[in-house]
Design goal:
The chain is of the alpha/beta class and 395 residues long. Helices cover 36% and strands 14% of the residues.
């Protein structure tokens, strides 16, 4: 008997995607990866991210940043200031299960597409808004962007070395954390709708997401309200002690996690820390001195030599991969975390794969990131009441 092909977890779920930039588009892309039908509604100029790209990379004229966040979607261009286009947006929303938008607070309402207006059209709709600081309050009208949210949260003071600038992350942490919270929240609301038959309004924001993510660090600070002192030797967390951190070797770097200083010292031949008082994996008092001593030892061998010595003793350690190393890493390849697809304007594109595996459903790239307005005609045929003649003249 032929095995039935696995379906996708969100087959049949329709999402009206009014998002731009990163946090909204990555959230809807993840939902699309799980099978949802994503209708990306773009303004005449397109998603802001179509005109910006990391490293100014525009292969085939397409933004590498836009490509990163917009697979498994169809694109329609609508000028929401025009009544005919606004009506098409309402037609799409009327047939949608979920709407996600990340305009500044109040914009959707001014367009006539706020939750109070839309719930009358589609009471089953789950309406998710994402903003910088929240839908109201003293910062609600300020521009909300990842770096700004990190700054307001205070968390850059957890990163970096003593007496140096606080460090913000290279990845847009606030943006992408909000994406994850959007996904889990709309799926929870979808589950609740099965019980109540009704949708609801969900509000996410960058500031809340990054504060929530740092729950351990902020709880620790709130316990006594004392700022933790950052290490002068690059230990990457102000609450952690030796031997935690990165160490240079003859061939690169090795990461050493939370291990007994005594046990690690014995294995690397550092006799200075043989006493029982060093049988701790989080020594704070003289952590920079300890780290400096370990640095002198780790530089004497290659990374692979150290891994061969340490891993058999269950030392928490790993090679610090370069990005070139990462793409060929055996575990990365085994996990199928680098996917490749063919784009009609670019050719082959590689991108990170699906992070979660399902036992009885699948994730797949059904659609490559769309060109601007690529699916306008077919979306109009499926969602609007326009005639063939009206569709011809719509653009």
């Amino acid at each position: 008997m032929k095995k039935k092909e696995a379906s996708q977890a969100l087959n049949g779920v329709v999402i009206a995607d009014f998002t731009q930039l990163a946090q909204g588009p990555w959230a809807t892309q993840m939902l699309g990866d799980m099978g949802a039908e994503i209708i990306k509604v773009e303004p005449p100029g397109g998603d802001w991210m179509r005109h910006y790209a990391y490293g100014n990379l525009f292969p085939g004229g397409e933004s590498i940043s836009f490509l990163s966040f917009n697979r498994n979607k169809r694109s329609i261009v609508l000028d929401l200031k025009q009544e005919k286009h606004l009506q098409v947006a309402k037609d799409i929303i009327a047939k949608a299960d979920i709407l996600v938008e990340n305009f500044r607070p109040g914009v959707m309402s001014r367009l006539g597409l706020g939750y109070d207006e839309i719930k009358n059209i589609n009471p089953r709709l789950i309406f998710c808004s994402s903003s910088g600081y929240g839908v109201d309050g003293p910062y609600a009208d300020r521009p909300g962007q990842d770096l700004l949210a990190q700054a307001v949260s205070g968390v850059p003071y957890f990163n970096g070395s003593k007496d140096q600038l606080p460090v913000v992350t290279a990845v847009g942490m606030a943006d992408l954390l909000t994406s994850l919270f959007i996904v889990q929240s709309v799926l929870a609301a979808l589950y609740q709708r099965n019980e109540t038959g009704l949708g609801q309004k969900i509000d996410a924001c960058l500031l809340n997401s990054i504060l929530s993510f740092h729950t351990q660090e902020i709880t620790s600070f709130l316990h006594n309200e004392e700022m933790p002192e950052r290490s002068g030797k690059g230990i990457p967390n102000p609450w952690l002690g030796a031997p935690y951190g990165l160490y240079k070797t003859m061939t690169g770097y090795i990461a050493i996690g939370m291990n007994s200083v005594k046990k690690l010292a014995e294995l690397v031949g550092l006799k200075k820390y043989a006493g029982d008082k060093y049988d701790s994996n989080n020594i704070l008092d003289n952590r920079d001195e300890i780290k400096a001593d370990f640095e002198k030892v780790f530089i004497t061998r290659t990374t692979d030599e150290w891994l061969d010595i340490l891993l058999p003793h269950d030392i928490w350690c790993a090679k610090l991969n370069s990005l070139h190393d990462m793409k060929d890493d055996k575990q990365v390849l085994h996990n199928e975390m680098i996917l490749e697809y063919d784009h009609p304007k670019i050719g082959k594109i590689k991108t990170p794969g699906f992070p979660v595996k399902f036992s009885s459903s699948k994730q797949q790239i059904r659609r490559v990131p769309p060109t601007l307005g690529q699916h306008t005609e077919e979306i109009l045929r499926e969602f609007s009441g326009l005639s063939d003649e009206e569709i011809k003249t719509f653009k």
